[in-house]
User: What shape does this take?
Amino acid sequence: MDCADIRQGFASGVIPEGPAVAEHVRACPHCRELFEQGAMLGLRFAQAPLPPPDPGDLFSAVQRDLQGEVGLHARLRALPSWARATALVAIGGLLFALHLFLDVRPDLDEYGLDVFGAVTLLLGAGLVWGAWRLVRGVSRPARREGTLALALLALPLLVTFVVPLGPLYDDPVSAWGNPADCFSYGAALVLPMVALAWLFERRDRIPAAALVSAGALAGVAANLLLNAHCASVHLGHLMLGHASIGIAWALGLLLVSRLVRAKE
Assistant: This one.
């Protein structure tokens, strides 16, 4: 259920109702106005006569829309929300599973299965929640998208404090490791997720908050796979080499978007 569905219901002369309508109206202040005072504004909207369209302009607009809704991008963004969210989660889950079974961190016993499980659970839940919220961005107010972006950026930073910073390693050099290696490794592996998030986006001009959310979601997936791969528990390493990936992707997507719009 989105804004277009609400307006289409009023246009047909019927006041939209049901659980999906109620959920959308609670989150969307614009549609909420249509239901105030017994849905007076919504009913007036349905009764308002539409201006007669100019045939030439109408045919040109239809032709442009038809030309834009073909190809891979059109087919992917036409998928239902659950399918798009599942695909994003599947990429992150597959990357984690491959590292868990083929290249698991060598210190898993010292690290502790309880801590490993807690970090995995937090990042996994963030991945599922973030993917679902991201694909529903077209039907959610802008402030909700901004909140999603901040939450996804903050999650990897908060998770670093779940990792025990005690003396798992006697050698501080081994504890520090090389953050640049983890950063480049994790950022590169989640590239397919970033590309798919863009292909799933239904808006031609993607809002900045949605771009930040997409980059931050990729960062959550990168931290999830690095949790199964990297043996460092140093706070500095985790901050610079792991948690910073989502921030970097978010800034990179914003920069690319600015450059593309500047050329339009």
About this structure: The chain has two domains: 3-50, 71-263.
